[in-house]
Specification:
Radius of gyration: 18 Å
CATH topology of the largest domain: Rossmann fold
Number of helices: 10
Largest sheet: 6 strands, parallel
Shape: globular
Distance between the termini: 29 Å
Helix content: 40-55%
Structural class: alpha/beta
Strand order of the largest sheet: 2-1-3-4-5-6
Order of helices and strands: EHEHEHEHEHEHHHHH
CATH architecture of the largest domain: 3-Layer(aba) Sandwich
Strand content: 5-15%
CATH class of the largest domain: Alpha Beta
Number of domains: 2
CATH superfamily of the largest domain: Response regulator
Length: about 220
């Protein structure tokens, strides 16, 4: 079985060494490169095309958001896991809109790193528990402030299933097989979900799912 390959991008060598030490405990995983700045991270990703890129959000020369945007645009099969000291939703939203698959807080990296990499490598989303709680709390506050009913309750049972599966990173074909329906039916449900929730793309759908607690 081929090893899962990982790129580490962080401008602090001590942090990179600590992350590498954690990852080296998994024999089936391999850190194939390290990068100390954003431009180097993009170049290493293009050259080596790792399965997962772990990228610090605050990188010199090119910040982690731009690194994520460039990697995911040019290498859609590379899954990016963001490392950050910031737990507020503005950073999280920007990271996800740039194409990140997960968001990990640095102060919990020693606990969550393995789980986070495994999740994004499998095509799923991952957030540190603290981040998920922040997003859920913010979502609840938004609802209360606007006096809106939770649009999630307006979805049908099948639409809720599709919402979760899309948010977990499954393709229309995979969802169709899981639900024993056609891909066109899945696309129809997906369109209805976006319409009912007043969302415009998959990134917004995933953010909604995390805020609502559909996925964690």
């Amino acid at each position: 079985m081929a090893k899962l390959t990982i790129l580490l991008g962080d401008d602090h060598i001590v942090v990179r060494q600590g992350l590498r030490k954690i990852l080296e405990e998994r024999q089936e995983w391999e850190v194939v490169a390290e990068a100390g700045d954003g431009r180097e991270a993009v170049n290493q990703a293009l050259a080596l095309q790792p399965n997962v890129a772990v990228i610090d959000i605050s990188m010199p020369l090119l910040n982690g958001i731009e690194v994520t945007r460039q990697i995911t645009r040019r290498l859609p099969d590379v899954h990016v896991l963001i490392l950050s000291m910031h737990a507020d939703e503005a950073y999280i939203t920007r990271a996800f809109q740039a194409g990140a698959s997960g968001y990990l807080l640095k102060d919990s990296a020693d606990v969550d790193l393995i789980q986070g990499i495994a999740a994004v490598a499998a095509g799923k989303s991952y957030f540190s528990p603290t981040v998920a709680r922040v997003m859920l709390d913010d979502y609840v506050k938004q609802l209360a402030g606007k006096g809106l009913a939770d649009r999630y309750e307006a979805l049908s049972e099948r639409e809720r299933e599709v919402l979760q599966l899309v948010a977990e990173g499954h393709s229309n074909k995979e969802i169709a097989e899981l639900l024993s329906v056609s891909s066109s039916t899945v696309e129809t449900h997906r369109a209805h979900v976006l319409q009912k929730l007043d969302l415009h793309n998959t990134a917004e759908l995933v953010l909604f799912a995390v805020r609502r607690g559909v996925i964690s």
